[in-house]
Write a structure and sequence with these properties.
The protein has 2 domains: 58 residues; 85 residues, no CATH class. It is elongated. Helix 4 packs antiparallel against helix 5. By secondary structure, the chain is mostly helical.
């Protein structure tokens, strides 16, 4: 029976055809009286099929592009790795800056609490908040409640940003 008859004319992968031809060959092997087996022409076809499958892979046109792609992939991987290292370095610097800001603010607040009067409810009493731009304009306030709210907001925002940055500092899995 032909391969096309078994598959109703449908195209089959090479492995399926090889298995079918091996099965057909094993059915057509005839034992001889002296213990040796006679191989029919059908069994020779699997070796021909195997040779045909190997030959297209050995064509010069198919091997050279694969070899050329591998160095490009390595170069892209190197570039991607360097980009990742730069990105991680930038995030590490951002993390260090945020930690410094948080520690400065905490140290300032601790100093105010230690030096402040115990009777004061707000340890920012007597502080000044100055916001200035590069054109020399300034906003100045001495309102302790406003300064306390600004300090709390800055502290909370720095902690949130720190958590976000730290969650993004990871090494990719290979």
């Amino acid at each position: 029976m032909k391969v096309s008859e078994k598959s109703n004319g449908a195209v089959q992968p090479a492995e399926d055809r090889r298995e079918e031809s091996i099965q057909a060959a094993s059915q057509s092997v005839k034992p001889l009286t002296n213990g040796q087996q006679e191989k029919s022409k059908v069994e020779e076809k699997p070796s021909d099929i195997q040779n045909l499958e190997v030959k297209p892979e050995l064509k010069a046109g198919t091997q050279k592009p694969q070899e050329a792609e591998q160095p490009k992939k390595l170069a892209l991987n190197l570039e991607a790795t360097l980009k990742l290292v730069d990105d991680l370095h930038r995030r590490s610097i951002q993390r260090d800056n945020l930690l410094n800001r948080i520690h400065q603010l905490d140290a300032f607040e601790i100093t105010l609490i230690e030096e402040g009067d115990e009777l004061e409810s707000n340890h920012f009493q007597g502080c000044q908040l100055i916001i200035s731009d590069d054109k020399g304009r300034k906003f100045i306030t001495q309102t302790a409640g406003l300064i306390k709210l600004v300090a709390e907001f800055i502290h909370r925002a720095c902690l949130e940003k720190l958590g976000e940055i730290e969650s993004n500092i990871v090494f990719p899995q290979s």
